[in-house]
Amino acid sequence: MIVYGRNPVREAIRGPREVSAVWATEHAAREPWLAGVPVRSASPVELERLAGSPDHQGVCAEVSEYAYSDADELLEPEDAVVAALDQVQDPRNLGAICRVAECAGASGVVIGERRAAQVTPAVCRASAGAVEHLRVARVRNLADWLATAKRSDAWVYGAAVAPEAVRYDAPDYSGRVVIVFGAEGRGLRPRVASTCDQLVSIPLRGRIESLNVSAAAAVLMYEILHSSRRVDKGT
Amino acid sequence: MIVYGRNPVREAIRGPREVSAVWATEHAAREPWLAGVPVRSASPVELERLAGSPDHQGVCAEVSEYAYSDADELLEPEDAVVAALDQVQDPRNLGAICRVAECAGASGVVIGERRAAQVTPAVCRASAGAVEHLRVARVRNLADWLATAKRSDAWVYGAAVAPEAVRYDAPDYSGRVVIVFGAEGRGLRPRVASTCDQLVSIPLRGRIESLNVSAAAAVLMYEILHSSRRVDKGT
Question: Domains along chain B?
Fold first, then answer.
């Protein structure tokens, strides 16, 4: 797999993947984080061909395939917080959610195998390389996995605009938590929503109808991981 | 100005701008929110030429120029919360911040006149049309305007990763608040940072170095506008 862009290549070098080659323009090759890394010289046109995208910022790298994690292992810590995505298909949204999950200190992100964005180079780019340090797991059927998670003592929350939802800052988010986000426009599928223990909603005080899913993920993951309630409990 | 995309055109129709023409593909013209709107038929190729972007989702509209607000007026309410952007140049980030500001219930967004993204059609698109209902003001010099805001009794916070910053959920955000965000990668310029009453930081618990500026804006604006502390005070 060819990853491209400054942050994605830098984090791939720092992370667990094998990096077999790095190409850069003369200018980009002088970045301090590339010191000591064998770099092959390439023109912007060659980089665009290698990366399959003009969005390479002068550098790309050949790396081993992305190693997905096991979804159940993400829930092992007693205070695990996992974001689960229900058919989020936009690579930019998946990348942005992974970046926020990594920054907030989530245990990982769970995605479906089908009708969902996977960890492609565009997602690496949109995540600013966060996927190199974050565990991402794939499951065959998200609702089935959520049911398993509940049996493992996780409390499953779904982000939704729904009459039965409580305000996002009302729950006591202690212990193992899974928070599920739906695709923009469509929200959670009914079976996924009905598997959740509790739906939570973020107040919308303006006239437009929804937050972007990655903005919602930022608000909720920081609420869950950094709310004083959780901190007070020493987790 | 030609705005394009479903949400941007829909919100332009609902908002205060004059809409002088709407073009849509046959398929898009059947969207329920276009019922009763005179629509000219256009092919995807014609729409791309009109919009200057392939990202038109089958619909675009000619609208009057964007009407910027007066920055000082944004601070009139006693509980005003204003986001100020220090040289944010990426239209997608400006759009995403405007969307979050509109959803969270901010009084408006202040941007600089120079070296900063303005409210272009790409920003309308990235904001999902939120700019039609949100007040956006331009100022000649951001640090000067922040100094004025302080004289108007606003407390000015700057989002920054800095040793002197306090945790984002520590301040009592009552009263008039301005929260300043810097450009991704560069952060706040020194004179802007030194004009702030207080720097606040969002904890980063992973290995990557920063949140996207729109994710930081989501976390901070919801903390400021919806934290129980502010609600407790009845503002």
Answer: 2-63 (no CATH), 71-231 (3.40.1280.10)
